[in-house]
Design goal:
The chain is mainly β. It has strands at 2-7, 10-12, 18-26, 31-39, 46-52, 57-59, 67-72, 77-82, 91-99, 102-107, 111-115. Strands 2, 4, 5, 6, 9, 10 and 11 form a seven-stranded mixed β-sheet that branches. The termini are far apart.
Length: 117
């Protein structure tokens, strides 16, 4: 089992910065990748950013150059630094973790990010 706890969402203005955190616990050694999806009202969930256990990074085109994913291995935590936020970034952001022992990822509870003036 893997447990994921997210924090850091909120209401900000366009151009502002937020940092999301996702703390993992449980079978940490089985995690092969962690990242963030988001889901806006009426839209499908979309991948935002992912970091693999080997250190590879991948981003959605819509956030490249603005968002950065990183990890702190000592804290078993993954971060999503979100800069120059836009109203279209408004969504519920979900942390996820891929693991070796099952095909379905683990999910966090989600954290709301609202970008509005």
């Amino acid at each position: 089992q893997v447990q994921l706890v997210e924090s850091g969402g909120g209401l900000v203005q366009p151009g502002d910065t937020l940092r999301l955190s996702c703390a993992a616990s449980g079978s940490i050694g089985s995690i092969t990748a962690m990242g963030w999806y988001r889901q806006a009202p009426g839209k499908q969930r979309e991948l935002v950013a992912v970091i693999t256990s080997g250190g590879s990074l991948n981003y959605a085109d819509s956030v490249k150059g603005r968002f950065a994913i990183s990890e702190d291995g000592a804290k078993n935590t993954v971060y999503l630094q979100m800069n120059r936020l836009k109203p279209e970034d408004t969504a519920v952001y979900y942390c996820y973790a891929d693991v070796t022992f099952r095909t379905i990822p683990y999910w966090g509870q989600g954290t709301q990010v609202t970008v509005s003036s």
